[in-house]
Amino acid sequence: MISIMIIGNGPAGISAGIYAKRTGLDVTIIGKDSGALQKADKVENYYGFSEPIKGVDLVLNGIKQAKRLGITIINEEVISIEFNEDYIIKTDKNEYMAKAVVLATGSPRQVPKIAGIKEYEGKGVSYCAVCDAFFYKGKNVAVLGCCDYAMNEARELLNVANSVTIITDGVLPKGNIPKEAKVIEKQVARIQGDIVVQSVIFKDDSELKIDGLFIAYGVAGSSEFALKLGVLMENNRIIVNENMETNLPGLFAAGDCIGGIYQIAKAVYDGSRAGMASSKYVRLISTVK
To answer: Among 233, 266, 238, which residue's Cα sits nearest to residue 252?
Structure first.
């Protein structure tokens, strides 16, 4: 059992880990990549650097600092988080348990630029299989995505739907494809229907009749995990208090996923508050138990 698991190894996640670790607890940080900062050619507005630094170098420095302090760093993709007194974190390779979790995976969900997706949100287009699968019991649905996150959503839907089709939008599928699911690799032209979604039209003009479409593009982020856990959100941002606590016990969030200015300085501040608050929470429940 891990005391504190931090999802995301960017500035918010690493800062949360550093502050949590300094309280003497065991801390694990897990992440597949370090998000948008890796693409920044020069960072010139962050305190303490007399010369510009590449975003990727800043990320690597943070990870090295965390490792020096004895924080465990895991390079895996988180595909789901479940809550049952403690937290169960599932990745593309393993499963972990933690007393507290800090969500720090950056900006909100990825939405592909396909005609009809926005128009049919809540009318057959969904972003959460766990949340909405019940409404498609015995119906035919599709998952838009190509990687482990999409495969996991498909597995959730296979428990209730009549059929599940994974649409990769022209990309070769990756990960563990559920054997009961059909895979279509064609590119999507548009989503269409009357009042609700009725079909997907591909660029070769072929059509797939469906009752619902679940978006699982790219890698799952903080907002996707929060949505599935029943965390309060507003405009795709996770709602937290001054201690970065969500409405779920032991679940904290920091960085871009809670909104505000998208700056490293703000992410580091959020992470420090989340690290200290999650440490306090773990010590409190350990005392009670």
So the answer is: 238
Please give the CATH superfamily to which domain 125-215 belongs: FAD/NAD(P)-binding domain (3.50.50.60)
**Per-residue pLDDT for 33 more than 90?**
no
Q: What is the pLDDT of residues 117-175, one digit of tens each?
A: 999 988 999 988 888 888 999 999 999 999 888 999 999 999 999 999 999 999 999 88
Site of tokens 């960017």:
10
AA identity, residue 56: V
Least confident of 26-35, 80-89, 97-106, 179-188: 26-35
Third-level CATH fold of 2-109+220-288: FAD/NAD(P)-binding domain (3.50.50)
Helix, strand and coil percent figures for the chain, each rounded to 5: 30, 30, 40
Give residue 184's identity as a one-letter amino acid code: I
* Alpha helices for 37-174 (secondary structure H): 55-68, 129-132, 148-158
Sequential DSSP letters for 61-90: HHHHHHHHTT-EEE---EEEEEEESEEEEE
